[in-house]
Every structure is written in structure tokens, then in C-alpha cells.
Amino acid sequence: MSTTASATLTTGPAAGLAPFAPPGSAEYAEATAAYQLAAAVEPVAAFTARTVQDVVHAVTTARRAGLPLQVSTTGHAIGRTGSPTGPLDGALLLRPLIDAPVRVDPHQRTARVPAGKTWGEVLPQVVPHGLTVLHGSSPTVGVIGYLLGGGISFYGRRFGLAANSVRSLTLVLADGQVVTASATQRPELFWALRGGGGGFGVVVEAEIDLVPVHAVVTGTAVWDAADAARLAPLWQEWARTAPPQITTSLRMLSLPPLPSLPPALAGRRVLALDGAATATTAADLPAARRIVEDMLAPLSAVAQPRLNTWAPAPPQALPAVHMDPPGPVAFSSDTALVGELDEAGWAALLGAAPSLLALELRQLGGALGTPVPGGGALDHFSAPLQYYAVGLADPDTAAATATDLRAARSALRPYLTGLTAPNFVDSSQQPQRSYDAATRARVERIRLEVDRDGLFARDVSPVRD
């Protein structure tokens, strides 16, 4: 910490909170950097932890100061008024970026991932071994938060939620203890951590299972928006009985006219179908290609795509397919788990939100819909589809985005299940429930056992029925 920052800590509002740095310091700026720019990330003080002992020091300091401690790594959903964690006013912010490598054991097919790593950093460490991870559609998302929230991957219908791949979690509890939670060590805590909604401690490392993947057949097919109402029900009909080797996402896209985008996408409103079919071995690749061909054939018979990039690719190419922004952006979003739509539902939804960047229905089912023995608080989704919509939220676009998000949710109201996928929740005003009342009671009991004074209470996702 700089001399100036240290001096400020002795006289300003953050006095006596070392190692936390005060507002205005370089350390504070580093710790509060976030992917979500539609936010005022303004804690009392902030700290970037590089070691597990740093985390212990930070937890001890927060407890002694009687201030709540919030944790963020990549900041995809933090600081926003009404975010899952709420604004950071009056709290300390801890950013764990543990300075340690990803450790891969190709024989056991496991990896140990320190807190702060993104999937984009982990993937290059595992694919040389013919293995991959159950990563999400964005390479910039932090591994730990994704795993704790369930984790929906384009490998999901084949291998299930990413949370089910977790073997153990190492964390710092509110009393400063460093403990490991697994099926054999603190099994109740291990159960609650996987999908329980946060607030148990600061996870500093995850041990995860790796899966064998030789290649994927992946890409995007793009049609004119005028064809969407005819094509979407056909995709849903195919998705209902699709092989578990494939997971797809159907999206209405309205992307800006960027030179980096293909002409079929830039500045146009289109229907896009992306995802991946998995070939675990070289011998599986022809079957994966046939699965994709069988998916696209009935759609192409109705309307020829303007663009079709579906083709075999190495696993490391998959994170780029969904075209998530690589850098920070101001956005607002909405999400829900939904049942199958009828013709009227598709017509209402597809025409409801023209200003949104993306309005998405992701295919669930397969292993994503199958309960797992030994799974955590959230180990599957019973709904067939996951809805996610996102739009820009800078001063010029925020109002139009908010209007369109409300319109899209209104169109989906008859199909809502009342449940949600926690990784995608952007606001505490959205439904937060991911499990039943009995599971909720068990989670809250375990949370109280490890954080009786509520040090991490601001990290707990609100439960709204």
C-alpha cells in the first residue's frame, strides 16, 4: 500500500481498516474495478487479496471493525442499486485474486483453481491434456462465483451443472478459520456452498473435475428477424427430444454496427442459434456433426440462414461463439426459468423488446435436468428453458432497456416457473428463488452456523417468492 493511502487510513473514514485501502487510492481503484459499469462501486474501503493469509487478515479486520464484508472478483453483477448484493454503501469490499497457478492433474482429471481466475485463464491450462471444464459462454466470468451459482455450460446437457463438478472448496470462514469443504469434510457446508446463495465465507480455491472433450461442433446460424416466429417453435420442438450431446441457445439479437461483427449481424435485428455438440473422442465427431445437421435441416427448409458458421472446432474456440463483450460494459438484464411457449407466446416474446442487445432462450434438459446423488443445494433445473435478456444501460439507453425488459417479462408471464438460474440474476428486484422451502431452510441453518454475526450477510442473494 502506498504511503499516501496509509496516511489516509489513519485520518479518513477508513481509519484503522488496513489492509483495506481508502477511496482515491490506486489500491482502491484496483479492488473496485468491475465488468458491470452501470454501477457505483463505492465501499468504505477495498482490498485486493493476493494470498490466503491476505484473505484471513481482511476477514479479521472486517469482523473487528463491525463492518459487513462483500466479495467480488470480476464484478459482473456487483455494486448496482438493486443488484443481488445491493449497493456497497457502508461495507468493505474484498477482491480475492490469489497469486497462484491453476494446478492440473491429467491422470485424476482434476484441476485446482485459485480465486480470481476466469474461465479464459483456466481453459488453456486444461485443453492440452485432451480435457476441458464446464465453463460458461463468457471467458471473462470468474470461476468461483460461476461454480457457486450452479453454472450453465454449452456442455451442460451432456455433463450437468458445473457445480456438480466441484470436488472440494477451500474457504475462509467469518472467524478467520481456513477450512476445506467436500463430500467427506464438512459435507453440510459443501452441500450449501453449491448453489446456496452465498454468505458462507470467502472461497479461495476450488477443486473441480475435468471432462474429456476431443472437439466440438459449434457456431452460429443467423436468420432475418422476420423469420423468427416461424423458426422458434421448430427449434423448441427439436430441443424437446434433442440428444444430450448438444446444448443450444436461441436469441433475438440487435447488435450495434461494429466493424468487428459479420455483416449479417452488424446493425441488424436477427434470430441467431448457437451452441455446441460435444465429441468426447475423435470417433464421436461424425455423430456430433449429424446432430447439428439434424437440428439445422428443418429450420433451413423454412428459411435459409443468412450466415452459418457451425463447424468442428477445438474446445478452446467455444467461449467466443456466444460473442459476449470482452471488456466492461454498462448493462441491465432479466432472467427466469420458463416452460415451453406456445405459438402466441413466441409471437408476443419475439416482438416485445426491439432495443435489447439479446433476448435469449437457452436449452436445458438432459443432464441439466437430472438430480445428482451427492449434489449441492442446486444440482439441476426442472424447467426446459432458461430465459435471459440484456440491454445497454448507459445514460442514453437505460430507459429504453428498462422498458423492453418489462415488456419481455410481461410476454413471458404465462410461462414463468417461479424459479431462476442464480448465475444470471442482475437485480434484487427480480425473482431469486432457485429451490423449495425445505432446501431454503436447510441453507439458512448452515449459513447461520458458520456466520452467526452476519459478517457476509450482504453477500447473500435475497430470496423472493
Q: How is the quaternary structure best described?
A: single chain
Beta content comes to 15-25%
Which runs of at least 5 residues are low in confidence (pLDDT < 50)? 1-11, 80-85
CATH topology of the largest domain: Vanillyl-alcohol Oxidase, Chain A, domain 3
Helix content: 25-40%
Gross CATH architecture of the largest domain:
3-Layer(aba) Sandwich
Spell the H/E element sequence.
Answer: HHEHEEEEHEHHEEHEEEHEEHEEEHEEHH
- Our Rg estimate from Cα atoms comes to 22 Å
The overall average pLDDT, rounded, is 92
The total number of structural domains is 3
Helical segment count: 12
Secondary-structure-based class equals alpha+beta
Taking the alpha carbons of the first and last residues, their distance comes to 44 Å
Number of strands: 18
Shape verdict: globular
| CATH top-level class of the largest domain | Alpha Beta
Q: Specify the biggest β-sheet.
A: 8 strands, antiparallel
InterPro entries: FAD-bd_PCMH, FAD-bd_PCMH-like_sf, FAD-bd_PCMH_sub1, FAD-bd_PCMH_sub2, FAD-linked_Oxidoreductase, Oxid_FAD_bind_N
GO molecular function: FAD binding; oxidoreductase activity
Keywords: FAD, Flavoprotein, Oxidoreductase
Family: Belongs to the oxygen-dependent FAD-linked oxidoreductase family.
